[in-house]
Amino acid sequence: MKMVIAVIKPYKLDKVREALSAINVSGMTVTEVQGFGRQKGHTQTYRGSEYVVDFLPKVKLEIAINDEQTDSVLHAICEAANTNQIGDGKIFVYDLEQVMRIRTGETGHEAV
Amino acid sequence: MKMVIAVIKPYKLDKVREALSAINVSGMTVTEVQGFGRQKGHTQTYRGSEYVVDFLPKVKLEIAINDEQTDSVLHAICEAANTNQIGDGKIFVYDLEQVMRIRTGETGHEAV
Amino acid sequence: MKMVIAVIKPYKLDKVREALSAINVSGMTVTEVQGFGRQKGHTQTYRGSEYVVDFLPKVKLEIAINDEQTDSVLHAICEAANTNQIGDGKIFVYDLEQVMRIRTGETGHEAV
Amino acid sequence: MKQFKFSLHPILALSAFSILLFGGFPEAALAHHHDVLDSGDTSWMLMATALVLFMTLPGLSLFYAGLTRSIHVLSVLMQGFAIACLASVLWYLFGYSLAFSDGGNLQNWIGGLDNALLGGVTRDALIGTIPESVYVTFQMTFAIIAPVLIVGSFINRMRFPALLWFTALWLLLVYFPVCHWVWGGGWLSSLGVLEFAGGLVVHLTAGTAGLVSAILLGPRTGFPDRLKRPHNLIISVIGACMLWVGWFGFNAGSAVAASGDAGMAMLVTQIATATAALAWMICDWVRYGTPKVLGIITGAVAGLVAITPASGFVGPSGGALIGIAAGIACFVVTHLIKQTFRLDDSLDVFAVHGVGGALGTILCGVFAAQSLGGVGLHADSIPAQLGIQTLGVIAVFAWTAIATTVVIKVIGLWARVRASEEEERMGLDLSQHEENGYQMG
Amino acid sequence: MKQFKFSLHPILALSAFSILLFGGFPEAALAHHHDVLDSGDTSWMLMATALVLFMTLPGLSLFYAGLTRSIHVLSVLMQGFAIACLASVLWYLFGYSLAFSDGGNLQNWIGGLDNALLGGVTRDALIGTIPESVYVTFQMTFAIIAPVLIVGSFINRMRFPALLWFTALWLLLVYFPVCHWVWGGGWLSSLGVLEFAGGLVVHLTAGTAGLVSAILLGPRTGFPDRLKRPHNLIISVIGACMLWVGWFGFNAGSAVAASGDAGMAMLVTQIATATAALAWMICDWVRYGTPKVLGIITGAVAGLVAITPASGFVGPSGGALIGIAAGIACFVVTHLIKQTFRLDDSLDVFAVHGVGGALGTILCGVFAAQSLGGVGLHADSIPAQLGIQTLGVIAVFAWTAIATTVVIKVIGLWARVRASEEEERMGLDLSQHEENGYQMG
Amino acid sequence: MKQFKFSLHPILALSAFSILLFGGFPEAALAHHHDVLDSGDTSWMLMATALVLFMTLPGLSLFYAGLTRSIHVLSVLMQGFAIACLASVLWYLFGYSLAFSDGGNLQNWIGGLDNALLGGVTRDALIGTIPESVYVTFQMTFAIIAPVLIVGSFINRMRFPALLWFTALWLLLVYFPVCHWVWGGGWLSSLGVLEFAGGLVVHLTAGTAGLVSAILLGPRTGFPDRLKRPHNLIISVIGACMLWVGWFGFNAGSAVAASGDAGMAMLVTQIATATAALAWMICDWVRYGTPKVLGIITGAVAGLVAITPASGFVGPSGGALIGIAAGIACFVVTHLIKQTFRLDDSLDVFAVHGVGGALGTILCGVFAAQSLGGVGLHADSIPAQLGIQTLGVIAVFAWTAIATTVVIKVIGLWARVRASEEEERMGLDLSQHEENGYQMG
Ligand SMILES: Nc1ncnc2c1ncn2[C@@H]1O[C@H](COP(=O)(O)OP(=O)(O)O)[C@@H](O)[C@H]1O
Ligand SMILES: Nc1ncnc2c1ncn2[C@@H]1O[C@H](COP(=O)(O)OP(=O)(O)O)[C@@H](O)[C@H]1O
Ligand SMILES: Nc1ncnc2c1ncn2[C@@H]1O[C@H](COP(=O)(O)OP(=O)(O)O)[C@@H](O)[C@H]1O
């Protein structure tokens, strides 16, 4: 099993969720995060004081999937979240050793 | 070393924390997240406009442990967080390559 | 590729970010979290009611890097975030299987 | 002119009314003509003025701000604040004059420029028993709130420069004239329309303008099924409470005296608000199975709006019934607009203010009847008065709809009115003002 | 009846007082009987009414709302708002009549129904020097705030339908009668109890009812050691500030005139609030090593409550001392209730309003003494007056405790009063109203 | 003494003015001397007092609180609240007496102790046409707001115990004397300085003290380039709106009567606020390409400040021009202080209140001219009056700067004034009060 972590622009969340539903991935956990990358923050001025806004609001999705879904999931996210503009975000994949559904105690593939 | 990620219902946080303390796991990092899964959101109506609430508030726990604790930790969380109702959440486990305590610079097992 | 997760004291964020920039690591994703560990929370009293504050505000950084950067990154974070006081936080490292830049579709090392 | 001016809003209304009733000015009304300052009346009007400003800033702004998304919240507050400033300046420049001074040949339609720059509004000038300076400021707060009300219709999507243009032109083409028609000695006041505190002048104009501009600007991105929920109902409740409190200045202040009329206006305002709020709450309960916070506060506003034109003319029971009618009618129209017509009048400005204002104006023609505890319409003059009231509603609606359309179209000639999709998505706070409402950490 | 009515709250109090002092009605008091409208008095009472409403909505609601968890915040605001509406309607229907009209044979206990539906409250009707409509509305705001105060005792756990029942029945069984006893010509006013602005009628009734209902409903889940902290103290501070400002209407408004009595009531209110707040702050500092924000604002409220019954009778130094006493006493009782008796009177309604109201009522019997700067009790009549004051406290406490118990038990016959554990856990916002307070993003 | 007292603020100002104009007291002014209570004037002053308190609590506190970081938000609210309490108590103890009673030989510099503990302020005592109790409380609210204003200069870094000392000593050394100089019959009032509502007494003192204490305490950690943005502009907008509304009490209340002067003061206040806000908005737009929310509300405050000393003397157009001047001048100075001098006067207290207050005081000497719509300075007396106004500004600035320095240095002898880096980093909320503002979940 794999865990896919996608950091995307917040307003793309709905579209990504729909793209994932379309390929039958319907579980995920979402966090509001601040991103720092090539997309540079802007400077805001409040009454003569300048503030550098380094971090930009992003949304992080964590999606546990079975191994064979990896490519289609990456593809779906990538397509839905892409705007061709800097700051679109990144996807990270790592290996999951175990997954467990709390309600039933199921583990492994059924639990995903 | 393993990292255990548990996504649970918010009001179960205290109980899970206590269950973990009982088995001598006393470090964890907690994040407020939004969950999407089988438990479907509800529809809210505000003055004639209907809003689909897809995401439900959950709490995510990240708990780094030593390998031999894995089973007891999964068990403890599962028991404490279970309500037998849909939406109880999931637990994910993955392998940690390295752990470091910032204060002391210790690494590995002692750092967990 | 590795993912480095660092849980640090919130006011150290700027310093850590600068330390990382100094070694050419300039991408990261930041989340506000609550930490539970050896550093014990305090008790707050509101009008005769005592509240145990178990969780302390921390900041979590997720930083994807290439393997060879691992040591320098750990070192940089450790130095910048250290105050020699309990609660300085922890760093976790795990293996990343895949990284993808959404904007370009690049994967692997170039995407980090 | 003083003589003339004295007999304005709502004294004019009352006088016109007296003419209807008794075929002439009653002694009591004339007695006021001595124009001696009464410190009690002045005190109340100073305060009523502060209350109406309070009702707009922060009241109405907060009511609206809580209902947007957090990325647009400042833009709503900014619009309210900037409108307040701009309307104040325009009122000082020529607004008061166009609304309240003698228009000569055009008197039926618009005032003149005798009082431009508030010329003639000296320290000693009186209107009835209060300083004219107070009357000017009191009426100024009415000119402020009307355009702020409209903002609710097109939140999240009007660009800020366009909003400033809109405010200026709309005041010029809609508010100042209509105010003159009803309270400044124009044709509707000559007809004897009953309009105590702004049902037509403020609420129907704003509601109609809201509807029209919502149609012309088109819906928010995501309307109707991918909208985000109100981001902070606490703020909206605070705003609603402030509206309620401030409205005492709006209605009881429209008596332009600390009198029995003012007292009764306050009492019926309180009762109508309460019944309307409860009526809406029950509608929610029946329709959705739950009493809603947003419902009860909206119902309260509907009640406040509906009692506004009637507050000087009806008694407690009249107030209670107008409230119930408003709660139900505004609830129904809200649903019609959103669910049947699928119009994105985002914060229901038409359903609440347009419908409430019209309804109150018309019902006023009934509940002013003495037999119903009102100020004294004879049963057999009700049909005639109802006709006048309805005519007022239709005329104000039609003129506002036309003029608002013109205003928006004309602004479109030199300014982009609607925010781009990108601006809307970033949030108007960032795209229009480079600021964020909330900044945690 | 007018004659009778005129002599009501707090003029009755003052008159009763005069009888004590001079063995008869003084000329000055009688002089008012001419019943001519004074625009200055009317102006102040219009405003005082707005202030008291403001103090409840949004003031008190916000004060409470900030102290709950974020998942219950709307429910608190909703309860305040709905109570305001319901109490207004009941006041219109029969509340004013039961409290203030002549009760005939039952006059000692309760008023009659002569003024039901506010019959007789015409535009011309006066109470003293102000329109009766204003007096009705002013008193209405008192009837609103009392049940809203109680809400603080059982936040997070009373179901909304039960709350509506509770409000209606409690007003009927407790507020209307007690108001009649003290200000409506009932037995306590005949005895000559000194109660200027609501120490007994509003605060002791609410505080006692809070205690009783907290006991009957049982504690919040998690009480006492797993409770969550107040979710937004900023909101509570805003609320406390609004309470302070609005309270000027409550106390100085109770002079029912823009007079020296009103002025002194405002001054002593300000001083007592300040000393009570500082007293509580120092208590916190001594006990916990830190001055607390929640402490100082609670102390201010305690001072406001305690000076309420005394505000028309004491001088500046009396006010200062009553404030200090209230700050300390309410601090101590808060800790007793929470830590010793382990009662979950969640927002300390009894400790602040019950104790503060009782304390102020009793101390009023001392500090009204002329030698202490008061309105003029002779040193040797102090013991007698203290007896009357204490009797008033005991009677109101006892009646309220009994009647509140009955009300809650009776409602239990047909409605679930206490939210289920599941409803409490979801938050009353979602479980009772299907809404959320905050919705970021 | 009554005779003397009667002629105080701003009647003294007006009288002094009359002397300038007519070489003697006019009949009209003397006519007041009969000292009969006017219920209308009293009503307005009761309300104006509530408005000024409202403007400070919650208004000013919120304005400031929104601009800090979320970890300091409570500390700002706490400081405002505690200052309000402490200043009230000091005013009662001796402040009113030092400011307004006869100082005998020292009369030019400071009042005496005749009214300590508010001795002599009885129920019947009058000042002009209102109860002295009301005048005492009205002036008390001015003594409260001045030190709260200063808080904005050193947010996030003054320890709470030091703040209490600062408040007490600063009131004693700066506020009470300066108030006496200008309104209590001291040397500036003898000179005939025009100062209607607090441009010198409140705003210039507070602004200057802010500048001095910002310098002495040093900048916030992170100043100037690693500061965190304002955490909640919504709160600041609410605060600014409340300031605006409450300021009607401040300015129009300073007429100490519900009169034409009060009405005109309200009108010009409204106009100046609007033009100043728009002026600042345009400055932002030109300088940064965007109209800013924080800009427009700050501009409004600048306008309110600048019109304050002039509000009783100028006409509508004078108000409009003073507003524009204030908007631009305060904008420029804000940038100078922050960007050129790199002083961390954190919330621009000097740039807005110091500069605004001084500017308004000086311009008042021009726009009071009859030819400019003012109350009636002859063109040829303008230079002389300008000299007096400027002298007033310089004297108040100098004295405040020196005395504030002394106060801070002296406190440093026994208390730590500046929070440690650790305390600042934890946030003053936690380090000073062991509380958090926000607590989600
Ligand atoms: N090395 C990294 N580790 C973790 N998160 C990263 C990393 N690089 C980028 N991110 C996340 O991805 C977001 C987008 O990255 P950015 O470099 O701005 O744009 P792009 O991916 O289009 O080049 C960042 O805001 C950050 O949240
Ligand atoms: N595939 C997944 N990846 C990541 N998080 C998931 C996944 N599936 C479920 N979750 C998380 O677990 C929570 C509970 O899952 P849900 O399917 O609603 O209930 P249950 O686990 O009882 O079947 C979700 O709200 C979500 O936060
Ligand atoms: N086992 C763990 N798993 C996950 N996070 C942990 C763990 N232990 C500690 N942490 C995180 O690190 C923070 C600091 O740890 P703590 O034990 O308080 O101090 P220190 O690291 O200095 O011993 C905690 O607040 C928590 O967020």
Spell out the blueprint of helices and strands.
The complex is a heterohexamer, with three copies of chain A (112 residues) and three copies of chain D (441 residues).
Chain A (H helix, E strand, L loop, with lengths): L1 E7 L4 H10 L5 E9 L6 E4 L2 E4 L3 E10 L4 H12 L8 E6 L2 E4 L11
Helix pairs in contact in A: 1-2
Chain D lengths: L1 H5 L4 H12 L4 H5 L7 H27 L7 H28 L25 E2 L2 E2 H20 L8 H24 L3 H5 L7 H19 L15 H20 L7 H29 L4 H18 L5 H25 L8 H19 L14 H30 L9 H6 L1 H6 L8
Antiparallel strand pairs in D: 1-2
The complex binds adenosine-5'-diphosphate (3 copies).
One adenosine-5'-diphosphate sits at the interface of chains A and C.
In words, what does this structure look like?
The complex is a heterohexamer, with three copies of chain A (112 residues) and three copies of chain D (441 residues). Chain A is an alpha+beta fold and 112 residues long. Chain A has one domain: Alpha-Beta Plaits. Chain A is built from two helices and seven strands. Chain A has helices spanning 13-22, 70-81, and strands spanning 2-8, 28-36, 43-46, 49-52, 56-65, 90-95, 98-101. In chain A, the strands form two sheets. A four-stranded antiparallel β-sheet of chain A has the order 2-5-1-6, covered by helices on one side. In chain A, strands 3-4 form a two-stranded antiparallel sheet. In chain A, β3 and β4 form a beta hairpin. In chain A, α1 runs antiparallel to α2. Chain A is elongated, with a radius of gyration of 17 Å. In chain A, 49% of the residues are buried. Chain D has 441 residues and is mostly helical. Chain D has a single domain (17-433), classed as Orthogonal Bundle (Ammonium transporter fold). Chain D has 17 helices and two strands. Chain D has helices at residues 2-6, 11-22, 27-31, 39-65, 73-100, 132-151, 160-183, 187-191, 199-217, 233-252, 260-288, 293-310, 316-340, 349-367, 382-411, 421-426, 428-433, and strands at 126-127, 130-131. In chain D, a hairpin with a 2-residue loop joins β1 and β2. The longest helix of chain D has 30 residues, at 382-411. Chain D is globular, with a radius of gyration of 21 Å. The model of chain D is unreliable at 1-33 (pLDDT under 50). β2 (28-36) of chain A pairs antiparallel with β2 of chain C. One adenosine-5'-diphosphate sits between chains C (7, 35-39, 56, 58, 86-90) and B (27-29, 62-64, 101, 103, 112).
